[in-house]
Specification:
Layout lengths: L2 H12 L13 H10 L6 E5 L6 H8 L3 E6 L2 H11 L9 E4 L11 E7 L8 H14 E12 L6 E2 L2 E2 L5 H8 L3 E12 L5 E11 L2
Parallel strand pairs: 1-2, 1-4, 2-3, 4-5
Antiparallel strand pairs: 5-9, 6-7, 8-9
Length: 207
Amino acid sequence: MNPIREHWNDVWSTKPHETVSWYQDDPRVSMSVVERLGIAAGDEVIDVGCGASHLADRLVARGVRRLHLIDISAAALDQVRSRLDSIESATEVRYHPADVLELDPVPSVSLWHDRAVLHFLDDARGRERYAAIAAKAVRPGGHLVVGGFAPDGPKRCSDLDVRRAGADELADLFSPGFRPVSSEQELHETPWGAAQSFQWCVFQRTG
């Protein structure tokens, strides 16, 4: 088995969602961006590395029906599915147990959302492949939203090394296929009260 898949399946099978460091009851920054961009029922959205996040619930409540949830861990997707299966408006949600770097076929979407996946890719080849897949997925005029540990954020997450990045580094990674729209930093509070600095960037697909 893929060791990364095994790692994340173990995390999602053994740890309650509310106890992991990245847990959010309210995905405030993500939903603020969704609202600013006017994402609505007719839009197709992909959330890569969704884990058991409540973002999917919020998007469905907003009327988004064509939602692709990508996670390397089937155990994580099972948790989201168990919450959404009883919601009639969530019947078009698609669950993809896949490594984002191996995603095939790549859905065509208006919005690509990533909270804390890219920062686990610490080699140039993986990050460049990620950027190429995002450029393939996001339609011209659509948007890419990426959140990960900022330069002053933690060096590790879930016992794995991460690559911290600021807005300029992320803009360089995604150019020329995307142009920067906005950036902000967030202090995320873990369930045990520790503060983690996140860098958020919004990009628009060019071409």
